[in-house]
User: What shape does this take?
Amino acid sequence: MRSSVLFLSFVTLCCTAMAAHADDSKATKDEAVAFVKKAIEELKAKGPTETFADIMNKSGPYIKGDLYLTAYDTTGKCLAHGQNPVLVGHDLMALKDIDGTPFIQERIEMGLTKQSFWQSYKYMDPITHTVSPKDAYCEKFDTTLICGGVYH
Assistant: This one.
């Protein structure tokens, strides 16, 4: 009996530790805003080549847990993607989420009229590998939109 109680206590402790670690990998909205603002400052100071390389660097300053950045021009062309470099160079205006929302087109349209904004859509969470609701913060500099989001 005592060994069963010890075993269950151990399992509970392990599950609690795993849940705490999983929560650590979930980005906050404040972190997303800070990442985007930092990348915009880098873009202004160092230009697109270095900034986009940093956005796509898996061990770089713009990837933490499930938080990563993306960059697009105002035509919907992907300039940098922190999780899926295959998308870089492609026109993603027609890309739709699981609900059929053309979220890149929506993002570009918002970026043409706003300096910064939040956008909601569904996308693949890089930690859980499931499609989840996501809120992305986007900010525009010149003709570039840089976005980073949080999964729910």
Observations:
- The longest helix spans residues 2-24.
